[in-house]
Amino acid sequence: MTVLVVSGTGTEIGKTVVTAAVAAVARAAGRSVAVLKPAQTGVGPGERGDADEVVRLAGDGVTPVELARFPEPLAPATAARRAGMAPVGPGEVAEAARKLADEHDLVLVEGAGGLLVRYDEEGRTLADAARLLGAPVLVVAPAGLGTLNMATLTGEALRARGLTQLGVVVGSWPEAPGLAERCNVTDLPEVAGAPLLGAVPAGAGALAVADFRARAAGWLAPELGGHWDAAVFAAAVGS
């Protein structure tokens, strides 16, 4: 796996922190890593974007790349239109990812919001970039109520496009999970049609960077380079 597309079932659900955890585990294993953010929205000139946050958490050995930055916190196509700027199409994303893959062991392409958020006026999405790359997609989902529906829809959208869903990671696992969160540990992989590959604790992005890097492997399954076990986790939370 050279290129991995990281998408979400929505926005503000821990996608950047999950991307950073995957990058940190890969760096700890001695792999060279690049993180590609096709369209960074809601961030102005000189401000830190998601790719910068991945570098901060995972280590300076990660190469950050942004293709475009739009100031308003909107879907990329809308943000580009309102800023009077050219949008980023899936072909540009695929080309940039392939170039990075020539020089890195792992390229993480972090999308904006959910899988089918529009990137340009033609309605093309991150899913189109994944198709051009032939890359698997890692889906980040929230832990609580509503996540089963969103994970189901995202899984169906991936399969309808012939894309491979590597698995699902819970982006922010609460310290005191309720009944819905505990049950979702069992139900998420069933409705998504893909395995549960990790659970990142809430607030992980606020950890000291040394702690984040040391603990990241414990949040992710072996498919992502870690040692997290879904069955052990489910038993521990009483799902």
UniProtKB/TrEMBL annotation:
Pathway: Cofactor biosynthesis; biotin biosynthesis; biotin from 7,8-diaminononanoate: step 1/2. One of its GO terms (molecular function) is dethiobiotin synthase activity. Its EC number is 6.3.3.3. Its main location: cytoplasm. It is found in: Cytoplasm. InterPro entries: DTB_synth_BioD (IPR004472), P-loop_NTPase (IPR027417). It is an enzyme of class 6 (ligase). Keywords: ATP-binding, Biotin biosynthesis, Cytoplasm, Ligase, Magnesium, Metal-binding, Nucleotide-binding. The active site is at K37. Its cofactor is Mg(2+). Mg(2+) binds at T16, D50, E110. Substrate binds at T41. ATP binds at residues 12-17, 50, 110-113, 171-172, 201-203. Gene3D superfamilies: P-loop containing nucleotide triphosphate hydrolases. It catalyses: (7R,8S)-7,8-diammoniononanoate + CO2 + ATP = (4R,5S)-dethiobiotin + ADP + phosphate + 3 H(+). NCBIfam families: bioD. Homodimer. Catalyzes a mechanistically unusual reaction, the ATP-dependent insertion of CO2 between the N7 and N8 nitrogen atoms of 7,8-diaminopelargonic acid (DAPA, also called 7,8-diammoniononanoate) to form a ureido ring. Belongs to the dethiobiotin synthetase family. This is ATP-dependent dethiobiotin synthetase BioD. It comes from Streptomyces ficellus.
